[in-house]
Amino acid sequence: MENKIKWGVIGSGVIARRRTIPEGITKAENAKLVAVFDINPEANKAVATEFNAVPVDSIQNLINSDVDAIYIASPANMHLEQAIACAKGKKHVLCEKPLALSLADVDAIAAAATRWDKVVSEAFVYRSHPQALKVKQLIDSGALGKIKIVRGSFTYPDTSPDNYRLKPEMGGGGLWDVGCYPINYMRTMLGLEPDEVFGWQVIGPTGVDEVFAAQMHFPGDVFAQFDCSTVIPYHVFMEFIGDMATLVIPNPFIPGPNRSLYLVRNGKTKTIFVKGPDTYISEVENIADAILFGQTPAVSMVDSRHNIAAILALFESAKTGKPVRL
Description:
The chain is of the alpha/beta class. The protein is about 35% helix and about 30% strand. Helix 5 (about 80-90) links the parallel strand 4 and strand 5 (about 90-95).
């Protein structure tokens, strides 16, 4: 294998273009985009032309092509079959969140990755970015003191009638689509797993949660709250409140090349500037390094399993109206 990972993309149309993973692949030092597939031939051809890749006409032909890794950008209910097919076809996988819609599916994907010795990782783009690493360093260093409360939000409006995120059977709704981000961010930065959760949801006309509000309790009496929605205007932040200081992250989930963090102590705010690459480059390079050098990817299968367990527990809580222990 050469020093650049050759990538293919499943779902090269609207999802892949909006997520800009193809652009991240083309800009990464250790990657290049080779082939793309989408069920819409016109969208597939357009992406292929834009990024100088080869359009292929089926997932199997993409798997059979000369690529080392495949980015899966299809709806969540397709991830299980596609991730396993890619691993079986000796391709490494970067799969959009959520990785799967059940713990059994996560376990099946993990088993396939182990059986065929392939890197499979869930695509939380912020995890390998310098901004997230700086946030983690500040929290772990004790700059905030003991963390007491964590708050977050991820909302955006997307109600187009053909949007698969409005379909329950395809993993639609706010919690699966964007609520997974604050859950993952909290778990990652605290280095802890929630032991009890409680959730409320507002179900829309198609049967998915349009608005979800959640509370999570972490060991050491750390209390966390977040909201997510696919109907509320764009609103994103994370906030970690310690007994010495508060850290505010205005753009936690899609960090970008130049962002600011705000450390508030004794009523005074210190701005911390963080330089980094374009949002998706570090994610692509992280997976390529895992493939080329055997490094652990930023998001492990165990990590993904914990995140999905928390999501499922929150859905159970919202349905029953009771707290759920993990």
